[in-house]
Amino acid sequence: MIELFKIGFLPITLLDIIDIALVSFIFYRVYLIIRGTIASQIFFGLIIVFILSFIAQTVNLKAIGWLLKLITDIWVIAFIVLFQPEIRRLLVVLGRNPFIRLFIKSDDQVLVEVLTETVFEMSQYQHGALIVIVKTAGIKGIAETGEIINSKVSKNLLRSIFFPRSPLHDGAVIIKNDIIEAARCALPLSQATVFNGHPLGMRHRAGLGISEQADVLCIIVSEETGTISVAEDGILRRGLSKEELRTVLINSFSHPKVKGLKFFGKSNK
Hints:
Layout: E1 3-7, E2 10-13, H1 14-34, H2 38-58, H3 62-72, H4 75-82, H5 84-95, H6 98-101, H7 109-125, E3 129-134, H8 140-143, E4 147-152, H9 155-161, E5 172-176, E6 179-185, E7 194-195, E8 198-199, H10 202-213, E9 216-221, E10 228-232, E11 235-238, H11 242-254, E12 266-267
Parallel strand pairs: 3-5
Antiparallel strand pairs: 1-2, 3-9, 4-6, 5-6, 7-8, 9-10, 10-11, 11-12
Helix pairs in contact: 2-3, 7-9, 7-11
């Protein structure tokens, strides 16, 4: 590779510039993801350690270099432990990429119709519901917090689960493909507590929370008002009609590679 210039005794080539540019871009994107969190402060601390370690090796400061090497030798483990939530968010973002989702099979139209009809009926009776539909990778850890069912989705089964006197009506139902994996599952709560000036209940915070952490679509039916809401990609949409819910489900599952399609209802953006 042709040498472009030198910084002191260090020769700089075009490959070095490309390498530095790529690393800078990666660090910048990671910073955008964790910006505003406590992890951002830790992130800057790690960058400082890496810079000091590089300088120490360059000028041959053996004592400082040895001390910093002790830190950098375990940086991978420390990075995974400290940034576990942010790494999970990054992987979820990558999984939602339209190019990757070209290879993911869509849910069957029958599932859309069953869910639409069932949710609308529960809305009419004001039976609260929390339904999580897995779109790509499974959420086995969440499913294991509830009662394992592994049964084909049907209107009667869902209505029975969310009937107010049912022992399974509290918590969420997890659906993958056309199978109800589990019921009465505990979901992570979103940090958001207010939506358009109105406080969010636990059911809506749970639906929003799981959509922030996994590639899922969550349908929420309010027990107080019967309002139908959908949480997806960390966005909550409320006040959906029966036809609007059907459209959202079709857009999200039948055509996952198409982004930016019209969604109905209000957004918390």
